[in-house]
Amino acid sequence: MTAETETVAQPEATGIRTAAGPAAVGVRRARLGLAHPALLLVGIVLASLNMRAALASVSPLVGEIGASFGLSSTATSLVTSVPVLFLGLGAAVAPWLARQLGAETVLLGALLLLAAGILLRVVPSVTALYGGGVLVGTAIALLNVLMPGLIKRDFPDRAASMTSVYTGAMIGGATVAAAASVPLEQSLGGGWEASLAVWSLLAALAAVAWLPQVLVARGRTGRNTPAPVVAAGRDVWRSALAWQVTGFMGLQSLWTYVLVAWMPTIFTDGGMARSEAGAVFAFNNLLQVAGAFGVPLLAGRMRSQRPLVALVTVMVGIGYAGLLVAPVQGAWLWAAVLGVGQGGAVGLALTLIVLRSGDAATASRLSGMAQTVGYLLAAGGPLAAGAVHQATGSWTVPILLVLGACAVALVVGLLAARDRKV
Q: According to DSSP H, which parts of 189-305 are helical?
C-alpha cells in the first residue's frame, strides 16, 4: 500500500487529511517535484538525529555548567530534568497541534523551536539555562509523539523496520553529541556554551530537510493549512493494555534519563578523569544504537515480545548493579551492557506503540498518551537521583531505587508485550 493510499483510506490523528483521491494526490506530489520517498526518509533520519542530541550533549558538561553558576547537586539535576519534564508536558499538546496545523508543519516548527532553545540555553543566565531547557524538551516532545503516527501512516507495511531506522538515528545523534561535547569545548575555546550551541546547526539543517514535507502536505489539501481531523476510535486512556505500554515506556525512560543526567558524574565521583568519563558515556550511547536498531526488527517478527522485554530489562538491571559494585573498575563493561539494554528498551517501547495499535490514528493517540505520562514519570528520575545523592553523599541509594524501577518495568513490560491490540 502506498503512503498516499494509506492517507486516504483512513483518517488519523496526526493531522493530515486529503481533499481528493490517491491519483490527485500523486499528481500534486509530482507537480511539486517532491514525490521520491528517499526525501521523506532523509527528513525522518535528520529529525530523529535531533531527538536526543540536545540532551546527551549536556551530560558530559553538567558538572562544569553547575559549577559556573554555583548550583547545588539538586539544582544542577534540573538542567537535565527540566527538558525531560517538558517531554511529557509537550507530548500532551502534540496531537492537538497536529490536528490544527498538520503533523508536517508541527514537526518543522519543532525543529526550529529546538534550535532556538539550544541557543537560549547558552545565554549567561540561570533563567535562560532553564528556559532553554523548557523549549528543548517541548520541541523534542513534539518530534517524539508525531513520528510513530507518521511511520504507521507512510510505511504501514514496514512499520517495525522504519521504527528501527528512526530509533537508531535518534541514539546515533546522542552518541555523537556525547562523544563530541568535551572535544568541542576544548577546540572551540568558548567553554561549555560554545560546545552546546553547535547542536542548533543540526536542528536547523533538519528543518531545511523537512520543509519539502510541509509543501507536500499543503499539496494534499490544496490549501495552506490542512483541515483538522477528528479521528474516530477507542479512547486509549481507558485501555489497560495502553496503560501497560505507557508504564513500560515511562520506566525505561526513567532509567535512561538517570544515566543521561548522572552517568559521567558517577564515574568522576569515583575518581575517573572527566575526559574518560565522557568517552565511556559516548561508548554507552554508541552501543545503544545496536539495541535500538536490532530489537525492533526482532519485535516485528514475533507475535509476543515477552522474551525481548525480559532480555533488555535484565541487561539494564545487570548494568546498574555493576555501577553499584564497581563503577570505575568495570566502567566500560557496564556501559556496554547498559547500552545494548537501554537502546533495545527504547526501541522496543516505541515498537510496542506501533504493534499494539490497529491503525495510524490509534498509534498517534497511544504515542501521545505513552509519552505524556511516560516522560512525566521519567522527569522525576534525574531530579530524585540528584536529591538522594546530595542527601546521602553516595550513589548507592539512587541506584537501588532504579533497580526497583527495573523490576516493575519487567512486570508491566511482560503484560504490554502480549499479542493484543488497543
A: 191-197, 199-221, 240-269, 274-299
